[in-house]
Amino acid sequence: MDLDVEVNPSGLDDEYLAGLNRSFGNWGDRSAFRWDFQREVGSRVADLMVLRDGGSIVAGSAVSYRTVRFGNGELLVGIMTGSWTLPEARGRGAFSAIIDESRRLLATRGGTVLIAFVTQDNASRRRLVAAGCLEVPTWYVASNAETPLPDHAPAVEPSPATIGELYRAHRRWQGEGTGAYVEYPSVGVWASQYVDRPLPVERLTAAGCTCLVERSATSDRVLWIDGTDPRAAVAALLARAIAAGRQLFVFAAQAGLASAGVDLGMVGKPGSIAVLDALEGVNGDPGRSSLPAEWRLQAGDRA
Question: Angle at the Cα of 46 (from 44 to 48), degrees rounded to 5?
């Protein structure tokens, strides 16, 4: 179908949010919209796009920008954020158009690498693979009604750590591994990503690990784990969630963290970080880069 792409439209926030909620069931409210698409991160705000078919908005997406450290240098990376297509418009090329426009936008902003977080069975992943992406494995691990209560799980307590201490711990965690990671230039920028979110975030200590856990209406979502025994921390957080009648959700870019949840009886779903180069030749700059094949990320980095 012929699609008209409009970038950063004015006065369409409510219509865009309605499209997200219709596409995903219960995506979020205006506070989530502002946090995802209108928040400044390191002096940059996301670019928003809508796709029209005959004047009607049928799809939308955003590109959020982050500075990423990779090897001895840094890259401006675009993250495909909040991509949606209305049910009646699916299978007609909308997401392919979103990929093309996202790459173009990124290149015009001086960026070199576009990424998207997808599950293995997601239709969007197939379009990204067709576009030539590199795939970096990830996992989505969640408890359900059949997940057993862990044996002898340690207690979970509130953490006394300050925001500054958490920020420094995050920086240490990044330096202990290899791979590309998001650069947060200040404690304030880091806190805006990990702590000051639309949903409440708890600072917890579990099995000697400091954890940040975001609480939705029915689930505990692990944003960050720092410490020497994250497997024991997952067990502690799982026991706490089950006791409260809640689900525990863990996104993992490291296989060991994913296997910790699966070994405890949680359900694991494979996914990937889809990594694409920006377009060549925009504004006379080839803008090509070596694609990072390893990423050191936590769940809180994804938005």
Answer: 150
